[in-house]
Design brief:
Structural class of chain B: mainly alpha
Oligomer: heterodimer
Number of helices of chain B: 23
Strand content of chain B: under 5%
Number of domains of chain B: 1
Largest sheet of chain A: none
Number of strands of chain A: 0
Distance between the termini of chain B: 62 Å
InterPro entries (chain A): DUF1468
Strand order of the largest sheet of chain B: 1-2
Largest sheet of chain B: 2 strands, antiparallel
Structural class of chain A: mainly alpha
Organism (chain A): Jannaschia pohangensis
Helix content of chain B: over 70%
Strand content of chain A: under 5%
Shape of chain B: globular
Shape of chain A: flat
Number of domains of chain A: 2
Number of helices of chain A: 5
Largest interface: A-B, 57 and 55 residues
Keywords (chain A): Membrane, Transmembrane, Transmembrane helix
Helix content of chain A: 55-70%
Distance between the termini of chain A: 85 Å
Number of strands of chain B: 2
Pfam families (chain B): TctA
Protein name (chain A): Tripartite tricarboxylate transporter TctB family protein
């Protein structure tokens, strides 16, 4: 007697196919929000529609492939904590630059990034908090003359250089 | 003749020579660091070049690309981890050689072969690019659109493990490119009322996100993986074993010549790139070898063939970029951005408007090859040891911080930093799920030109799509695109069947 395992429908290919299809449909809907040309032509819509339509078709092909395979292809393994931590740090850093300027946000982000990568030596973290903002500031904002991003709430550059 | 004048001009310009030398060193180190590709290094350094002379900026990035391709072989041989995808084929024979205490010999073979391959590719580019440009001048919008179409299909379907996910990556690239004001009718597309989106998504932060921050996301998962270097045997015996003689290298020459031509041919085709060239050359080399049994166990020819091919791609991959404005690789896509930033319009007229600049760039490429060849021949082992001393736990946080300031510096806009973060996470997700980030970026770059030529063609034909099939050259390229897709699908099906037969 042999028992056949039920087909595994929710495998990686099906999930990717479903996500692509849903994303493609959303993009298709958004394409129809694009205004028509003055003569009523679809000029500005054609390329986005083609790309969104391709995504729907490719999503459906992937979905069908997953259903046909009917076997478990696991989702790729990933280090959830580390990746989520880094994503939060990246978003937070981008947000903080706008609020408190480059120097303060980098002084906070540099040791946090090192911590995430496993550096635990407090002297190293402290050195990074001081050196990273200074070195990047000197290279990009002083050396290359890039206009620095000033913070909306507070900016250390204002304090150092005066208003 | 132009190239000799350009060589003279570059050789007598100390500042330009310094940039080429810096690029040869930076590219080699970046290529040799596992995980960090030449594309990532170029994307990160791109904002610095905004403040340089156009020729210095272009030469700096172009030579980093060349040297980075070669640098990948250092980590493939010494660490059993290819620094770039293109050097994965080198690893097959390079690492067994290193384990037998012949790492230096393997690296000398890799260096000489890379240099010969790279010179061959560049010379073919210099000789042939003018002719391609002349042909390109006669192409109209329908033909150009058909070339774009073929490029989309080839880029999406040929690279990577999955055709559907590769093509979806290309479609996503096109979709993201259409964000912002339509360049012809000035209608809003996918801006959702956000002012920052009206100018569209900028190429530089997108690439920094995909290639640099995306790699930081990958590396944080591998932060505890140790990197071990295989050292050469010490003493006179070790030195003797690592001395490369003419009789040892001579059997490699036919492989190097064949692989250089394979690499040059693959390089001209948009999107295929170095890794495909390296594996095709390795396969062809093994097929023609007198000692196929030794391949895979430490054959010097097995190092020479892929190395010559992956570097031979570098020059010819510039041909579609310079003549048609179609980047054949991610490095080409970045260079396209540099041309545009410096106000240089690429395409067939480039050889009329900026001939001196283009030949100076070629001359810098030739000098760059010689420089990385000399540094690599005598110093590759030192570069390998230097890299093991860079702690990954410190290197990637620094790269993380650099990505932010590089994305901001490109336009002085904080919105670009947010784009970079989203692209970085998206790029990491794409790699995790076997999508193709390179196809995404190249399609993003191609989409503007493709849309423009498509709409111009429709205007020419009064909205009739038949214009694409009634013009022979356009039809030929449409057929090439479809044929590439069918061929790739059949190859993947055959591989899947063989794998299932093995499992059974």
């Amino acid at each position: 007697m042999t028992s056949t395992a039920p087909p595994e429908l929710m495998n990686q290919t099906t999930i990717v196919g479903a996500v692509l299809t849903v994303f493609g449909i959303a993009a298709l809907v958004a394409c129809f929000q694009i205004d028509l040309d003055r003569d009523g032509g679809w000029g500005a819509r054609i390329f986005p529609l083609a790309a969104a339509g391709a995504l729907v078709v490719l999503g459906l092909v992937e979905l069908a492939k997953g259903l046909r395979e009917g076997r478990a292809i696991p989702l790729p393994a990933f280090d959830g904590w580390a990746v989520t931590g880094l994503l939060i740090l990246a978003l937070g850093y981008a947000w903080a630059i706008g609020l408190v300027g480059y120097l303060v946000s980098t002084a906070i982000a540099a040791p946090l990034a090192l911590l995430l990568f496993g550096i635990r030596d407090w002297r190293g973290l402290l050195a990074a908090a001081v050196l990273c903002p200074v070195i990047y500031h000197l290279i990009f904002f002083v050396g290359l003359g890039v206009f620095p991003p000033y913070g909306r709430w507070f900016d250390l550059l204002d304090v150092i250089q005066g208003y | 003749m132009d190239i000799f004048l350009a060589l003279g001009s570059v050789l007598t310009d100390p500042a330009l020579m310094a940039w080429v030398l810096a690029a040869a060193v930076v590219g080699m180190i970046a290529g040799a660091i596992p995980g960090l590709t030449a594309s990532a290094a170029i994307a990160m350094l791109l904002p610095l070049t905004f403040y340089m002379e156009p020729i210095s900026a272009l030469a700096f990035l172009y030579v980093i690309g060349k040297s980075g391709r070669y640098g990948g072989s250092i980590s493939a041989i010494l660490f059993n981890t290819p620094g770039t995808a293109a050097s994965a084929a080198t690893q097959i024979d390079g690492y067994p050689l290193a384990r037998r205490g012949m790492a230096s010999k393997a690296m000398k073979v890799a260096t000489i072969s890379s240099v010969i391959g790279d010179f061959t590719g560049d010379i073919l580019l210099i000789v042939g690019v003018g002719a391609i440009a002349a042909v390109a001048l006669s192409l109209g919008p329908p033909e150009l659109f058909a070339i774009y179409f073929a490029a989309f299909v080839v880029i999406g379907s040929v690279i990577g493990k999955s055709i559907t996910r590769g093509l979806a990556s290309a479609a996503l690239g096109v979709l993201v490119n259409t964000i912002g004001l339509d360049p012809i009718s000035a209608k809003d597309r996918f801006t959702f009322g956000l002012f920052d989106l009206t100018n569209g998504v900028s190429l530089v932060p997108l690439m920094i996100g995909i290639f640099v921050l995306g790699e930081v996301f990958s590396q944080i998962e591998q932060r505890n993986a140790p990197v071990k270097i295989i050292e050469d045997a010490d003493g006179p015996e070790g030195k003797a074993r690592n001395r490369l003689t003419w009789s040892e290298y001579r059997p490699c020459l036919p492989h190097v010549a064949r692989s250089s031509l394979i690499g040059s041919f693959i390089g001209v085709l948009p999107g295929l790139g170095s890794s495909i060239a390296a594996f095709v050359a390795y396969g062809e080399g093994k097929r023609h070898a007198k000692n196929p049994g030794e391949w895979g166990h430490g054959a010097l020819e097995g190092v020479a063939a892929p190395e010559a091919a992956n570097n031979a791609v570098s020059g010819p991959s510039m041909a579609p970029l310079l003549t048609l404005g179609i980047p054949g690789s991610t490095i080409g896509a970045i260079l396209m951005g540099v041309f545009l930033i410096h106000g240089i319009q690429i395409g067939p007229t480039l050889f009329i408007t900026s001939r001196e600049l283009i030949f100076s760039l070629f001359a810098c490429g030739l000098i760059g090859i010689a420089m990385y060849g000399i540094i690599g021949y005598f110093g590759a082992a030192w570069v390998g040891r230097f890299i093991t001393r860079i702690p990954v736990k410190v290197l990637y946080p620094i790269i993380f911080l650099t990505a932010f300031i590089a994305a901001f510096a490109s336009r002085g806009n904080l919105f670009d930093v947010l784009v970079m973060v989203i692209a970085g996470f998206g790029g990491w997700l794409m790699k995790k799920f076997d999508f193709n980030p390179a196809a995404f970026v190249i399609s993003f770059v191609l989409a503007g030109g493709a849309e423009e030529t498509f709409r111009q063609s429709l205007l020419l034909s009064q909205n009739g799509l038949l214009i694409f099939v009634t013009r022979p050259v356009a039809l030929l390229f449409l057929v090439v695109g479809v044929a590439a897709l069918v061929f790739r699908a059949r190859t993947l099906n055959r591989q899947a069947k063989e794998a299932s037969l093995k499992d059974a």
